[in-house]
Amino acid sequence: MRTCSLLLTASLLACVLGGCLGPVSLDEYKYVSSIGVDVGQTETYSFTFLVQSEASDSSTQSAAGKAIMVGAEGEDLFHAITTVHMGVPYQLNFERLNTIVFAKETAEQGALSRMSRVSLNALNIRQSVKLMVSLCTAREFLEGMAGAGMQNMTKLQYSLFRNYNEEGTSPLINYSLVHEAVRGGRLDPVITLGGLDESAVEKVKEQESSLTSESNPQSSGQQGGQEQKQQEGQNKEEKKAETTTEGIPRLGGMAVYAAGSALFDGWNMVGVLDSYDTRFLLMGAGEFIRGSISIPYEDSRLTVLLADTGAYMVDMQVGETPRGEVSLLLTCEVLQDDQQVSKQGWENGLRQEAEAYIEAELERVFLLCQSLNCDAMGMGRAASRNFAYATDWEAYDWKSKYPQLELSFHVRLVPLDDNINAGLE
């Protein structure tokens, strides 16, 4: 009997130590979908947690959607989590974490380096968690995601990154790849860029403002309120140029968007590329899948859909002045041709003009990244293949040679079919 008691005690102790009988029951967990990192006022950082709210939990559902937001400032992520737990009746669970969003200011100040020292295993965060830089504050970005009214926030976040495969307008990178890039010294991180599109939420704000005015027509502070609205309008116009989809208004959809790239020199953000330049960045890095570009010719433009063929090649010669050549073979399909150029016209000059245009744009984007000391196209990966030993590669000090790199591009376009497009004879 005593033996049975000892066995039972041992089993209970094992369950406690293993977490089976921990202080938090399953219905007291809240799953964190995204983490936002902003500059703090009291502490170094301000962390915002976008938490999934179960459909049956009507008491905590926000009016904006099936998600709630909690947050706190802290010197690190664990400090903020401890502070949040002091005031909420549940425990944050990070097993479903999909995205970590850094405000532009924090990314420029090296927040990624601080995050690299966080033990993800302690929080059950997957190494594949995606990273993103926001032109607005991270909190505003997460508010925009919560306002989309989607119950499954994970699917909502994934929809922001579909343009990597379909349009080539943003890169796709996760925590593990950033670590590999910086620690290995063979390339610099390029992270998805996003922001809050003021044009998408403008109508909602106007309607709310109109309802407020109708309910308080004789407000004593009406004149002051008008002046405040005018000032807010001016601020919006100034902010819109920085935070909308490259200044282009759109109708409907989510208030947040993902387009363009944030460039890094090691752990620190040094610049941005818009969605147009990002297509050429992905081409130069060998990560382009498909996307359309508009090519000028004569007095018109030719819009073509490009797709990768898997024939990307880099030939790199190392030395005090490294030199390299990038070769690309892309299929193309004409989407719009105002001049109705024939197939013969395509082969007798237009194809060569299109190839030369893409080569020039690739060189322009490369030189822009090089001026920021950002090996965004990952030429260090090709250079490292010239060394048999890691010690020799480290002694070569690629980042000190990168500013002198001379790189040329060679592009070959192959029609997707014999007709090029429906307009060709």
Structure description:
This protein is α/β, with parallel strands linked by helices and 425 residues long. It is built from 16 helices and 14 strands. It has helices at 2-18, 77-85, 104-108, 111-116, 120-123, 138-146, 153-159, 163-166, 175-184, 198-215, 222-243, 275-285, 343-371, 379-384, 390-396, 398-401; strands at residues 29-39, 45-52, 67-74, 91-93, 99-103, 130-134, 190-196, 256-265, 268-273, 290-297, 300-308, 313-317, 323-337, 406-415. The strands form 2 sheets. Strands 1, 2, 3, 4, 5, 6, 7, 8 and 9 form a 9-stranded mixed beta sheet that branches. Strands 10, 11, 12, 13 and 14 form a 5-stranded mixed beta sheet that branches. Strand 10 and strand 11 (300-308) form a beta hairpin. The longest helix is centred in the last third of the chain and has 29 residues, at 343-371. The protein is globular and about 70 Å long. The relative contact order is 0.10. The model is unreliable at 6-10, 12-26, 55-65, 219-223 and 236-242 (pLDDT under 50).
What's the quick description here?
With 425 residues, the protein is α/β, with parallel strands linked by helices. It has helices at residues 2-18, 77-85, 104-108, 111-116, 120-123, 138-146, 153-159, 163-166, 175-184, 198-215, 222-243, 275-285, 343-371, 379-384, 390-396, 398-401, and strands at residues 29-39, 45-52, 67-74, 91-93, 99-103, 130-134, 190-196, 256-265, 268-273, 290-297, 300-308, 313-317, 323-337, 406-415. The chain has 16 helices and 14 strands.
